[in-house]
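Chapter summary example.
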Amino acid sequence: MRLHRVALSLVMLVAATAAAQEIPNAPAVPQGGFDAAWPGYFVVPWRAGTPELNDATAAAWKRDGIATLHLDKNFSPDEIAWADKHGFSLYLDHVAGKGILYLRERKELISRRPDKKWLVGPGLLLARPRCLHDPAVIAEMDGLVRRHVAGAKDHRPFCYSLDDEISTGDFVSASETCWAPASRPAFRKFAMGLYGGSLERLNAEWGTSFKSADEIVPEDADRSWQQARTTTADKWNFSRWADFRQFMDQTMADTLVHIVKVANEVDPKRPAGIEGSQQPCAYGGYDWSRLVRSVQWIENYDIGGNEEIIRSLAPRVIRAKTFFSRQSKVGDSAILWYHFAHGNRGSILWPSGKDLRFWAPDGTLDKRIAYLPPIFREMQGPRLATLLTGAEYQDDGVAIYYSQPSIRAAWILDSTVHENHGWAARSGGIERYNSTSILCRLAWMAMLQDAGLQYSFIDAPKLAAGELTADRFKVLILPACFALSDAEIAAMEKFVKAGGTVIADFLPGLMNEHCRFRTGPGIAQSLFGVDESDLSAGLFDGKAVTFIDSEKLNKPLSDRFVTEGTQMVNGWPRVVRKAVTGNVHECFETQRSNGNGAPGGRTLLLNLSPVPYLVNRAAGRADPNAGWIGQYLKEARAAAPVTVRTAGRFNEVVRWRKGDKEIICVVKSPPRQLNESFDAMAKLGAIDDRPTRLTLEWLARPAGPVVNVRTGKTLDVDEGEDGVFRLDDTWIPCEAAIYEHPSK
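The structure predicted for these 744 residues follows.
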């Protein structure tokens, strides 16, 4: 009977994948409602290098603020008994096994070429060793999930982790999976579904001549890479490759939906999710529009803005972080408090290197990190543990657009710097530090933050659901949004007509959602009044189609910029070379009509790459473009109700609303350059552990008394002669200052 259920589930999974054309705005699994199991903040030591489970270890962990046991797959009855005896909650890991969602050995993806290099060679589509359309693979995961969840559910688990660092291939490296026999009919059905069941439309889009659906075959990135390197933009057609990548993204999301539902069937009270998740990318299955709607909790690596993307697109998904100690009180404190203030509800402690194991065999804490237990105890204590549980993040009317098709397009363009089919060696590390989509996204996030503004990401499902309105948002930012559908463009035009402001950096809507160059008017012409169809002079220096040369990976970011022959505007590179305007900033600014003769909103197309902002910011230099862009945001009525005034840089105010309370967190935020590390801030002198004066300023008087949550003290708010309401307090910059007051 169980095998019948598994087979039926797999049929449903394949059917869902084949039919998927649009991502629904609603989650595909229940999200929220798990506060009884995961009520507040948890600290979990990963079992690697931890002491033997005995009475001494239990006493030591409780002393140091640890009340949760990490259990791996195939856990023993003795481990369960120890947790029960000492009252520890459980964090259950790898419930779907290790080696299915995550491929255990990278060599499983080795190409079959004679030279045996560990690369995916051009013209080669690989069969994923554990095909996610194979009934036997799905049945194996189902059995593992049922057995592991059933064995732990009666012993105080607070969540289930399906697997760590999952991927459709090799993390987010260029692995052209999956062309296994079980995937082929699923892809063909999926591809036909993208084009309304019309083979004629599919052939027209892909430039192919298949005579039947049974002949449909995808392609790896090689042809698209060659097009981007050797032809003008009006010849670009990456659709056949991009649609295959969309299929693999959908495959991963649907697989997660299936096994989350299996876990919920056995234990509906606890959330199931993933850990070690990667940056948004064309590879690996990391389309966050899909992933966030497929799980109930996530531990992710904070790369490429995915922390903010997850929080925005799926606010009810519980978020946690793995903590890697730097053996630095300032750096460790800063990162723990930063993630707490941003709504994370747990830390998973991972040993940092061979010389640090947190606790010795006798339960003694390593003296180099003796400062950590007070932080753990406070975050899990009565004032803070549940403070942000159920709280709603408050933005300042600014939206940033998340576009997975644009991420795919950017990947192809970025890969053109690699010679001799070198795109196949483009790893997740190369992508992390050199991705146009990541760096543009981070630059906009940093600019907004430095302007005192908070933001939310939105995506195509939210557009389709009508969430982009001029009442809800004042400004929409398009970071490197190269590939947009007609429906997305229409929704943005509607937003502007209603009074909203749209700001794009460069080449918005150059391609459609399948990553094919638009032959007709796109968003640049319809919304920004700019004709980008004439790209004969090329982009940037006239030869490169990307601003970042990742072949110079080991050099500083500023040395990887393509600047020779590139026209610069106040230090930012102009993208379309022939585009020259009379605007003082050489950008395209328009005032739109609402369609009835009355003024609508405004649009601004920079035709510039904002990435140099990250370099200037990290170096402590004022960016000449940030000032007038900030003024443009103010004129668009994007404003924060409360701001912070204190010495130093990288100050951030994060606001939450919970019931009738407004919660305000003040933290230091990382430079968002390269690895986004707090170590860089410490070297810059931007954070320390010396108390400093902090002033909060409100445009309107808070509705009631303001309380410092960590100290319990009620503080005075005074009105200045300028009509601004101010509160003065003391803050340790490597920590968080947290306040609450009644909301209006």
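To summarize the output: The longest helix spans residues 239-266.
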